[in-house]
Amino acid sequence: MSSDGTEGSVSTGRSPIIRFDHASFGFPGLIALKDISLPIYDGEFVGVIGPNGSGKTTLCRAVLGLLPPVEGHLHIFDCACSELRCHHRAQIGYLPQKGVVDRNFPVTVLETVMMGRYGALGLLKRPGKKDRQIAMDALAQVDMASHKDTALGHLSGGQQQRVFIARALAQQPKVLILDEPTTGLDITMQHNVIELVQHLHDELKLTVLLITHDINMIRSRVDRLVLLKTRLYAAGPPADVLKPEILHQVYGKELVITEKDLVIVEDYHHHH
Q1: How far apart are the first and last CA of the chain?
Q2: Taking the chain (272 residues) in consecutive chunks of 10 residues, what is each chunk's mean pLDDT?
Q3: pLDDT tens readout for residues 105-142
Q4: How far is CA 163 from the centre of its chain?
């Protein structure tokens, strides 16, 4: 076990649920993440930040078992299998970057959330009453149960995000990974989604990995920040990571630090 893995588990009294051990990801000649050593502990709320193209989505895909390391090791739960078996993958709920939902696509809110049960069951079993109840419970957790028969395409962007979070929760996962969950939402909706995620973390004792470009919105909420730019620049409590000298290394001239907030210039012409 790497030194950082052992020290961390002694200090928190928890064992890592995910452990990167000198792991690199990508393809020969094109490494997206290099030599990452990082334990993530059971029940932790971790924010993953870094410039565009810094490897944040690669980190997601690695934890989901979609991308085996080209060097080093990645242990998830207690397993170092290169192919994450389906019962392990079912324990990881995933909210991908938000796509546009076709208003005319005939799928209801409840049907969308039921899709989360297929991942948990494997494709051969038909979902039954119990699965419907789990899906309804997941909708209740995100305050969308009253919309169960609404067409998904008729909801606002923020409501759709809640439904997609419920779909991930319907798997009854141990780990929840959210990739840029606030992109494309107005500012009130962004705060609502982040507050919901924090509430679910506290309530369901989930291990949460939240990937975001919006540092200001999560800095007061997460246990730890992980700062990536192809390699791991920093990981620790937000106050330790958000130091001007560290951030300028990663973001360069794109970063403006004001009294209260960090402004990363690239994200403005990128998202608006």
Answers
A1: 44
A2: 41 77 90 96 96 89 89 82 63 88 89 86 78 96 97 94 96 94 92 96 96 91 96 95 89 74 60 41
A3: 889 999 999 998 887 676 667 888 999 999 999 999 99
A4: 16
Q: 3-class DSSP state for residue 80?
A: coil
Closest CA to 139 of 196, 87, 205: 196
What does the block give as tokens for 179?
Answer: 């990739």
| Amino acid identity for residue 158 in this structure | G
Bridge pairing between strands 207-211 and 175-179:
parallel
Cβ atoms of 39 and 73 within 8 Å: the answer is: no
Structure tokens at 173: 């996962």
Q: Which of 264, 64, 272, 98 is nearest to 180 (CA)?
A: 98
Give the number of residues written for the chain.
Answer: 272
Which position has the token pair 């990082």? Answer: 38
Which two structure tokens, joined as six digits, stand for 33? 């993440």
Task: Measure CA 255 to chain center.
Answer: 24
